Amino acid sequence: MLPADCSRRLVAELRDALDACAERQQQLERSLRVSRRLLRTWEPVETPAAEPAPGPETNEEVPSPACTPSRQELKELELLTQALEKAVRVRKGMSKARERHEALSLKSGDAATSATTASAPSRASSQVWSRASETKPPRGAHQTTVPARGLPEGRLPSVGDRTRMARGARATKPGPGLRDQQIPPSAAPQAPEAFTLKEKGILLKLPMAYRKAASQNSRLWAQFSSTQTSDSRDAATTAKTQFLQKMKMMSGWPGSGLSAAEVEAEVGLLRKACSLLRWQMEEELSADPADWMQEYHCLLTLEGLQAITGQCLHRVQELRAAVAGQQLRPWPEGRCPRASMPCEGRTDSSWSPQLLLYSSTKELQTLAALRLRVAMLEQQIHLEKVLMAELFPLVSTRDPQGPSWLVLCRAVHSLLCEGGERFLTILQDEPAD
Amino acid sequence: MGRRRLRGHRGDAVGALPEAIAALSQTLPAGPSPEIFRRAKFDRPEAAPALWQLLFRVLSPLPADGASASRASPASPALEAQVHLVKSALRSQGYPRRALAQLPEDGSQGSRELLLALAWLLARGPLLEQLLAQTRVRLGDEIPLCECETLASAGPLPPRREADGPVDIRHLQWLMGKLRFQWRKLITSQQEQCALLGKIHSYTRGCHSDRSLGHLSVAETELFRDPEGGRQLLQRLESENVRLEAALVWRRQELVFWKWMDTVLGACPLEASQPTLLPRTPTVGASELELVARELQALHEELRGAAEPRRVAWEARAGGRGPERTAVQRASQEAVGRELAALQRAWEQGEALAQPHGPRRLVKRDAGASGGPGLRAAELIGVLRSRETCLEAVLGRLQTRCWQELTRLAGARPGLLWILPPGR
User: Fold this and answer.
1) Mean pLDDT across chain A
2) 3-state secondary structure chain B
3) Which InterPro entries match (chain B) (predicted)?
4) Distance from CA of A104 to the nearest CA of B (A)
5) Prediction ipTM score
């Protein structure tokens, strides 16, 4: 068992780390849910922007795709294609029926003719067509039940014909005969294809109201974040400084000025200083001086580093005094809100609409993974330091002959030297005799 | 336009102050009516509750809009709790006026003190900018570049959960294992999210009216799927635009406000200079301070251990010094002085940790496409990689130090064989 206060501190640190992780996970799950839903099929709302919108920023200027038909057009096309395909089937069915020596009587028959006469050149975009032609017509028993009459003798439509016919038919209106014709249930017009972002995402067009608000928003943010100064801004800055000074002069608190937030910022600076100093020291110690000049340089640097570290330690003393003497009170809930912490070395937190450009999913994944890796390493380093500070005193004060000492050593080694992933083995080396 | 110019001519007279105050209260989250500010100048009690609530909102920012939707806008705590929180938050930020701390906890009084506190917060830093940035409507897909953003968007922390009693070290190992597992899960989910984003971006390419963006973001695509959500988004966007416009007006007019605040401060009695003794409780900063103090102490010892023998050896060898040698030594001293000063600047001004900062909208652009403003992912990857290498080295050094320390401690019990696990 670890001592109570040590347990309390370490468990709190680890739980903080876990909470931070869980929060990230939650945020991520939320956006994953939304993204997954968008990539499944769904029915988009008919936005006003589906009609061609006026203005300089309409979609027509975008180079790809060259020509995008509206949803209405697409629906019509689909219906038309189905009708035409049916006509082709009717022909085929006819030919088969003939092979069976015309066993059945024929009723209506102008459908096929209307299809063959329609042979005007294609005008609509081939993109739309290729999609429509992919939908396979259901094949069924109606081949024999809907025969056709008046088909030109001996001419059966080939696959090529079928395409040509259908393509041509798009230019003309379907003949009345095609509609009046009695259609068996299986050939009834299908419901329009379900919407998927993959196939039709490109047709989406943002509503006008949104476009206006969004462009105004980014303009305002840009204006707001621009750091240009003016005379009135300078005057306001002076006025604010004077106000703060006057307020401090009139206040009743003793003026030994460090707040809890400032202490925290100072501690952050010291932490940064410490890691830089250590890094510099290790650089110096690993270098191999070639001559007496370099040797002297190294000596001076080490002494200088020692002096700076001494200054930092002095600052620590001052901060300790400030913490102790000022009756600083923490937040009632125990911790300050994180939002008030500025990023290291940065004070501006204003947002301006800037872009991060990526070229492929792979690149985005690399970026995101690296960002998490850096965050994880930062957390690991912090935890390592906390654990070192708490666990080493325990190892050195417990009795090495006691039963729990080896267990503790092994756990400490795993936590501190192996990131908790591996364990070492300890063997009792019994004397041979 | 014409009216504004007219007011400008009149200067500080009648129109400008109400305009400045109105702009301020429009910019603040749930800002009270300008009338409240006027009453607060005369310390009228009816203005107090609104100002406590305002300060509460300002000092404990709500989580960003993305999160608030699912958290179903947490109910504000009772006024008394808000008063308590405002007082201690101001204290921890170093607010100088004692009168505020002495106000009754029921929130019924002190409107002038509260007005002063608000002005203090405004004068001290970019408060409005921070507040606007925190509640900003996110239209684009973003990847936070810096840890401060991940943390800031999370809102207030839940109270810290500590262990009830002593725990076994195996419990720590278990928690560590759990942590590793969570990171792995996080990385997997993040990869999936990137893949989905890439799909959505390429399926909607060319759909955005803003050609520098090109494709839609998730939020924008959602507009088509969920019309009700879309209406809400539009509403939030429009109200943010109103706030931004008000903030711009405030910037032009704020000088008048500060002159007015001077008269408010002038109306306050001078506080007697005597410290009140509050119960002393350890701060969060204190334990962090001790941690860094210990590190610095260890470093100081190591440096002394390295420098002292070198100095002794140097003095022993350098018996007779020629004038030429002294000159070289002086040059060395100056060079080292410069290097160390640069090192000190590095942490004081944060030069060493230059890292791109601030949220950015993700835009997919083909590798061959011509540039345009914006940070390239490849650049950022480079920065992150060097940061990763640096952190790995730091962690590696710490682990080596731990191993050395453990070997030293193990010397207390000879006759043991320590077999390291494979893979190191």
Assistant:
1) 70
2) CHHHHHHHHHCCCCCHHHHHHHHHHHHCCCCCCHHHHHHHHCCCHHHHHHHHHHHHHHHCCCCCHHHHHHHCCCCCCCHHHHHHHHHHHHHHCCCCCHHHHCCCCCCCCCHHHHHHHHHHHHHHCCHHHHHHHHCCCCCCCECCCCHHHHHHCCCCCCCCCCCCCCCCHHHHHHHHHHHHHHHHHHHHHHHHHHHHHHHHHHHCCCCCCCCCCCCCCHHHHHHHHCHHHHHHHHHHHHHHHHHHHHHHHHHHHHHHHHHHHHHHHHCCCCCCCCCCCCCCCCCHHHHHHHHHHHHHHHHHHHHHHHHHHHHHHHHHHCCCCCHHHHHHHHHHHHHHHHHHHHHHHHHHCCCCCCCCCCCCEEEECCCCCCCCCCEEHHHHHHHHHHHHHHHHHHHHHHHHHHHHHHHHHHCCCCCEEEECCCCC
3) TEDC1, TEDC1_dom
4) 51
5) 0.78
